[in-house]
Design goal:
The complex is a heterodimer of chains A (788) and B (157).
Chain A lengths: L20 H4 L16 E7 L5 E7 L1 H4 L4 E6 H5 L5 E3 L5 E3 L5 E2 L5 E7 L2 H10 L1 E6 L6 H4 L18 E8 L1 H10 L2 E12 L8 E7 L4 E6 L4 H12 L9 E4 L15 H13 L3 E4 L2 H7 L2 E13 L5 E11 L28 E9 L6 E3 L7 H18 L4 H8 L8 E2 L5 E2 L4 H12 L1 H13 L3 E10 L11 E2 L2 E2 L2 E7 L5 E5 L8 H13 L6 E5 L16 H28 L6 E4 L2 E4 L2 E7 H10 L10 E6 L8 E10 L6 E11 L6 H20 L4 E2 L5 E2 L18 E4 L17 H18 L13 H10 L5
Parallel strand pairs in A: 1-14, 12-13, 15-18, 16-17, 25-26, 32-35
Antiparallel strand pairs in A: 1-7, 2-6, 2-8, 3-7, 4-5, 9-17, 10-15, 11-12, 11-14, 15-16, 19-20, 21-31, 22-23, 24-25, 24-30, 27-28, 28-29, 31-32, 33-34
Helix pairs in contact in A: 10-18, 14-15, 15-16, 17-18
Chain B lengths: L1 E6 L2 E6 L6 H8 L18 E4 L2 E4 L12 E3 L12 H8 L9 H14 L5 H7 L11 H15 L4
Parallel strand pairs in B: 1-5
Antiparallel strand pairs in B: 1-2, 3-4, 3-5
Helix pairs in contact in B: 2-5
The chains are: A alpha+beta (788), B alpha+beta (157).
Chain lengths: 788, 157
């Protein structure tokens, strides 16, 4: 896209420096734990050592004897106000604090309110809880077997652990295609439980002001407006009305989906503040964060892919078991219990597909949120990219050639997928070719062949993913009934500077910079002259928040639309000032000039001043606009990644030698920020591919519950990412932009897994579940007779 | 217990519980909130400060262990209104996103560059391997440190 503004204005396409950085590099950000209010109390939480147990007795006496401890709050206390259970986003129910039993290890059992952080911790350690252990169900397959202990005894008519069945696509056509297929491949693919592990954990400061009857909550939330509404709906019966609730999402230390849900700690802190009239702070520690906050993935997938003899793909069939823990607390649009998993036909022109998902309850923490990805899209992409690779290898066709053959072609867009999505735009072959050229694909294949002769294990993996982001069109997308629009409100001040507020909330994405750039592009007001604010529900327009790469596709579009409304009014004022008809004016970013007489012009700053000092009779003063943007479609970013791995046959360690990522997110707002998003996303793709997993032993003890054994990659394991772009604008987005923050997380794991299997295929290895740990590879190598 | 220490050249004393963690003293007693907390196991490095010039994870030190020590936190990097080259480097190279790990990264890098003014990329990666970042993928953090090393060698600080 050609630049339309100068670097000083800093519209789209300029790598301007971030406006949020001056405070962060000085340590002057305000994260939730930095909020300290006079008289503030602290909350700490007692958690269950058992994965499933009856609560026989909670004895608070010793805790109450700890100096500084003011109260021990139990489920019985909350039950008096009917606040011991809360609804989840998926219309299931979740305990705030239990009355009868606990359902997973590390579940909240009681909360201690004290005058200091340390007294609260002492108090929590002194609470004595007597448990009566119950049979534990860890494996979702066993959970669905007849005779399995029924976990949700709170649901009167519940006779099993099955949550829901969901299916999509044409089963008959798919089964027929498989019947006619010359070649089929089938694989069980497990995408394990992982955790976003943002470096800042979750927490809040709740302050109920009894004089003004107003609750203010500083809170680590990606969706402050929706949270305000949820609080009003859930706690309306105890007197919290929506106009008396203010949610402030301050600087957020990474979100990635983990800060979308409402966790019990928030609710208890709010209840404690309302009851005491004092500010109450709750900040979870890392182990609580990893062990109790929402997990991602945990999909047990069985996939089948069908092809003709010549390698033309025809159909995809998937059955999946989704382990949701003890309640379905996923964060998906209401209509889609498995999120957008049915984008699983990926970048390929399949004629038929059918997908089934069943949800199961187990004795694990709830969740099913994203891990820096749109709703269940990594699960979809990993499946199709593994299966396509499997088929290519099975047919002995180079995986790159095989993809090129089966891609949806550029001329097929807009493309209706076999599962009903309308892909807005794409050039999949272009991205893959650029990735192949960048990495030197043919040379790498030659090198691999030579190394194989010498017994050295080298693999090349490709992932050509299609993302689906920017939820979403109101016809299909809502959360708890709230349509998934987003918003921008602009006020241009008399001196030509502006403030713009949004319904989203940055957690590091750089919205203060990129939104200002969109407005600079549309209005010609320098980005430096535009203050961007989000996260305060008392001031920002209502929006559904930042997750699933929706900020640019939805709120970014709202910014463009609102700016164009401002421009429409500015045109009227300019026509009045220049004494010409509106049609006689020509716009270029920053000014209107008279057609054929370019010296006669008015800058946006002139016009802004006139809007308050010299506006036409009959027109309202001011220069403002608001847009609540309802996207007509989702956007479909895509890309092709190629990864080269070397495997140590002695230790089984996989080393990523090179990784080339070619992304296409349409028109780019700030290339520096987009590249940074891709770097981060790639690292969060590497992490689950090789390192991260939260698993459980047979009695529900968590493994991977601290940074000791939950292995977030450091700078040493992380390769030097090589990035590049193709640009295929979205035809329906006002700026031609798509989302980008999550593409790399979605696309990268399959490239790495494909590279490892590519290295080991000749030994008879067909699939390895991620994380591909040295232990797994070492064991496989020994099984295949490779010894060193 | 009475603890006397100096932070960023300024003397402080406070009566604290012997078990008070140094990071809590810095953040909650001295109200210098640039030093962050990201884990309980000394793995993430968000709380990294300098104790007598050495990087230390302040979540794993008691305040009383800093008795008589010279501490430096992120707030001490900027001198007389002039940013440290590392701070400039992080901004110029987009070495931060959410900003939460940034103070710890800056302090680790500060101590590292004092000892290794001309580091290789590998040296930098090893030096910051006790500091986790979830946003940036580290590539631009490495560039930021290189940027600062170049600026310092040209007399920037």
């Amino acid at each position: 896209m050609a630049l339309r503004t100068s670097p000083e204005v800093g519209g789209m396409g300029h790598s301007i420096k971030r406006k949020e950085d001056p405070r962060f590099i000085r340590g002057k950000g305000t994260y939730v734990d930095d909020v300290q209010l006079p008289g503030m109390l602290y909350l700490d939480i007692v958690r269950s050592p058992h994965a499933h147990a009856k609560i026989v007795k909670i004895d608070a006496a010793k805790a109450m004897a700890v100096p500084g401890v003011l109260a021990v709050i139990t489920g019985q206390d909350l039950a008096k106000y009917n606040l011991h259970w809360m609804p989840t986003l998926m219309s299931d129910t979740q305990m705030v604090l239990p009355v009868e039993k606990v359902m997973y290890q590390a579940q909240e059992v009681a909360a201690v309110l004290a005058t200091s952080r340390y007294a609260a911790a002492d108090g929590a350690a002194a609470v004595e809880v007597q448990y009566d252990p119950l049979p534990v169900v860890v494996d979702p397959k066993k959970a669905l077997e007849p005779g399995a202990p029924v976990l949700r005894t709170d649901k009167k008519d519940k006779k099993d652990n099955h949550i829901w069945h969901w299916e999509w696509g044409d089963k008959g056509a798919t089964d027929r295609a498989f019947g006619e297929a010359a070649v089929t491949v089938k694989e069980d693919i497990y995408l394990p439980r992982i955790h976003v592990a943002s470096i800042e954990t979750c927490g809040c400061v709740a302050h109920f002001d009894r004089v003004n009857d107003k609750l203010t909550v500083w809170m680590t939330t990606q969706a402050p407006h929706a949270i305000r509404t949820v609080f009003a709906l859930v706690a309306g019966h105890v007197g919290l009305a929506e106009h008396k609730i203010r949610i402030i999402s301050p600087d957020i230390g990474g979100g990635f989906g983990g800060k979308v849900p409402v966790y019990p700690g928030y609710v208890i802190a709010v209840a404690a503040s309302v009851l005491t009239g004092k500010p109450v702070k709750w900040i979870e520690d890392r182990m609580e964060n990893l062990q109790a906050d929402s997990f991602a993935r945990d999909y047990h997938i069985t996939a089948e892919l069908a092809a003709k003899k010549d390698g033309t793909l025809t159909a995809l069939r998937i059955k999946t078991l989704a382990d949701h823990g003890y309640t379905d607390a996923a964060a998906n649009p209401s209509k889609f219990p498995a999120g957008l998993f049915h984008v699983c036909t990926g970048s390929y022109d399949l004629k038929a597909a059918h997908v089934e998902v069943d949800g199961a309850y187990t004795n694990k923490p709830p969740g099913g949120i994203a891990y820096r990805c749109s709703f269940r899209v990594t699960e979809a992409v990993h499946t199709i990219e593994r299966m396509v690779d499997l088929m290519a290898h099975q047919l002995n066709i180079d995986p790159a050639d095989f993809r090129m053959k089966n891609f949806v072609k550029p001329e097929q867009f807009p493309y209706k997928s076999a599962l009903g999505w309308e892909y807005d735009s794409g050039n999949y072959g272009g991205a893959l070719k650029k990735a192949m050229d960048t990495i030197g694909y043919a040379d790498l294949r030659r090198e691999q062949a030579e190394k194989r002769k010498r017994g050295q294990l080298m693999g090349i993996g490709i992932s050509s993913f299609t993302e689906i982001v920017g939820a979403g069109p109101s016809k299909h997308f809502d959360i708890l009934g709230l349509k998934m629009f987003d918003s921008c409100e602009i006020r241009v001040h008399p001196t030509g500077k502006a403030i713009a507020r949004f319904g989203t909330k940055s957690q590091g994405q750089g919205h203060e910079t990129t939104y200002a750039q969109i407005l600079a592009e549309e209005l010609g007001i320098p980005a430096q002259d535009i203050q961007v604010e989000e996260g305060d529900t008392d001031t920002a327009p209502y929006g559904l928040g930042t997750y699933a790469s929706r900020s640019t596709p939805v709120a970014g579009a709202a910014a463009a639309v609102a700016a164009r409304k401002v421009r429409d009014k500015a045109r009227k004022i300019a026509a009045y000032l220049l004494e010409v008809a509106e049609d006689d004016l020509v716009w270029e970013p920053g000014k209107f000039s008279v057609k054929g007489a370019p010296s006669k012009s008015k800058t946006i700053q002139d016009i802004a001043f006139a809007a308050y000092t010299n506006h036409p009779q009959g027109m309202e003063a001011g220069l403002e606009a608001v847009s609540y943007y309802d996207p007509p479609n989702l956007t479909y970013p895509f890309g092709s990644y190629i990864c080269v791995v070397d495997i140590d046959s002695g230790t089984g360690e996989v080393k990523v030698r090179r990784f080339v990522a070619i992304d296409d997110c349409g028109n780019i707002i700030n290339p520096m920020i987009v590249q940074g998003q891709v770097h981060g996303g790639l690292t969060m793709g590497l992490a689950p591919a090789l390192y991260e997993e939260i698993s459980y032993d047979e009695i529900g003890n968590v493994r991977g519950g601290s940074f000791i054994d939950y292995l977030v990659p450091t700078a040493v394991e992380t390769p030097k990412w090589e990035t590049g772009h193709t640009v295929t604008p979205s035809p329906h987005h006002p700026l031609g932009a798509k989302g980008v923050g999550e593409s790399a997380t979605v696309g990268a794991p399959a490239a790495i897994a494909n590279a490892v299997v590519d290295a080991l295929w000749y030994l008879g290895v067909r699939h390895i579940d991620i994380p591909i740990t040295p232990a797994k590879v070492w064991k496989l190598l020994r099984e295949k007779g490779v010894t060193e | 217990m009475l603890v006397k220490l100096s932070v960023n050249g300024e003397k402080h004393e406070a009566n604290v519980e012997p078990r008070l963690l140094l990071v809590h003293m810095i953040r909650e007693v001295l109200r210098l909130t640039g030093t962050h907390i990201g884990c309980d196991t000394t793995h993430c490095g968000a709380c990294t400060i300098l104790v007598d010039g050495q990087p230390a994870k302040s979540c794993t030190m008691f305040a009383v262990q800093a008795q008589g020590k010279q501490l430096m936190t992120v707030e001490g990097l900027e001198q007389n209104g002039k940013l440290h080259p590392l701070q400039e480097g992080f901004m110029a190279e987009h070495g931060l996103q959410c900003g939460y790990c940034t103070p710890g990264m800056l302090m680790t890098s500060y101590a590292f560059l004092k000892k290794h003014p001309k580091p290789s990329e590998d040296d930098i990666r090893w030096a910051i391997s006790g500091n986790l970042c979830r946003c940036t993928g580290y590539v631009n953090i490495v560039k930021a440190v290189q940027h600062a090393a170049a600026a310092i060698s040209q007399g920037g600080a």
